[in-house]
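Input record (one chain):
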Amino acid sequence: MATVAPIITFKAGICDFDTSANPPKISPKPTPGYIYLYEGQDDELVHFCWRPRSASLRDPELDLVMVPSDGSFKPYQTSQGDATSRKSLTNGRIFVLKFQSSSARHLFWLQSKTQHAQGDLGYFSPRDLKLGEIVDQLLQGEQVNVQDELNNVPSGQGGQDDDDDSGNRMEGVRRESQGGTAENLASGDPFIGDPSNEGEESREGGADGGRA
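The corresponding structure, as predicted from the sequence alone:
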């Protein structure tokens, strides 16, 4: 595999999405992981990748070659209220990767510590939303100065921006129905991974590009 130089890297886990259930179920997996994007040397296209933190940059579990404007990366938020709403439809912060060219989708949950002052696990902080915005812009083929964009985001009140939320558990994913009640969408009880399991390569300065 050619040299990988990530444009952005941040802590996230993958989710199972069971559409055969009624209602569909989202089950976050507990494996500590990273989302990272890089530009391929051969195809010059953005690659969207996910890897366990124990794996190297060159050995992602998911490596998707993204055609500009085909993919989108959006927070799973309520449509109620104004456009700046920061409340998740679940009790965790989930982003959805979707495609114009197919019905395929991938769901990911943020594994950094929530920035909500009272510890609400479903709260999207300005930093969380900025991460999603940067990824979405990269998928559209736009040029983004990742470090400048992140430096302009105010720090949250719930802890350090890149802390693992090892003291909390995401109880099972829920979705707000149109009537305002919550529907249980998952039976899993995942935990945030211990950062000591990241492995040495993920700790190397600059190894993961613009760290978020």
